[in-house]
């Protein structure tokens, strides 16, 4: 029988793996933060799982050509649509990935013409220090009314708060525990390189198993879609 991995189980395993068992070394709150950093930031960017794929939706503002992307969005995917909110069908719009091509097609102008949007561009990343570029969606033409834009996206899972809460995928437990142990050793355990390398090796092992499991599930689901 597979182990149920609640937050408390992941924390207890990380304590055993790292040897940092005392709350005088690492508090439970610090363990929760370490686990959530891996759970919400590190693994969603690498995993091939469909469970995190949802629609990111926002409303445009008349005359505003940018939108600040929410912090819980890991990645935007192809398939963006535009809804003019008049009750008819949504229409596809282009999700541009080439910044130079986007601004060549829609030249930058301090007073651009307003019209129904045809394309969007995500510009910036989490490491940008330039506030004008920090994870913004550029919308062109600049909207001439309020539209709804929907984009398939990978969304971070909700933070694990209570000890009884479980990850979206319970089979992530071992990988999360080893990664949290690795990071705890780096921050609070004197940075022992050998022990940290061991934790990283086990993390990669369990992460590979999890990723393989997700890929097999997706392949099984795709194979079952026969008409």
Structure in words:
This protein is an alpha+beta fold and 227 residues long. It folds into 2 domains: 7-48 and 158-221, no CATH class; 53-155, no CATH class. Helix content is 36%, strand content 19%. The strands form 3 sheets. Strands 1, 3, 4, 5 and 11 form a 5-stranded antiparallel beta sheet that branches. Strand 4 (81-83) and strand 5 (91-92) form a beta hairpin. Helix 1 crosses helix 4 (173-188), helix 2 packs across helix 4 (173-188) and helix 4 runs antiparallel to helix 5 (193-223). It is elongated and about 60 Å long. The protein starts with 6 loop residues before the first helix and ends with a helix. Residues 127-133 have low confidence and may be disordered.
Summarize the structure.
This protein has 227 residues and is an alpha+beta fold. It has helices at residues 7-18, 28-42, 99-105, 173-188, 193-223, and strands spanning 53-59, 66-68, 73-76, 81-83, 91-92, 94-96, 114-115, 119-123, 136-140, 142-143, 148-155. Strand 4 and strand 5 (91-92) form a beta hairpin.
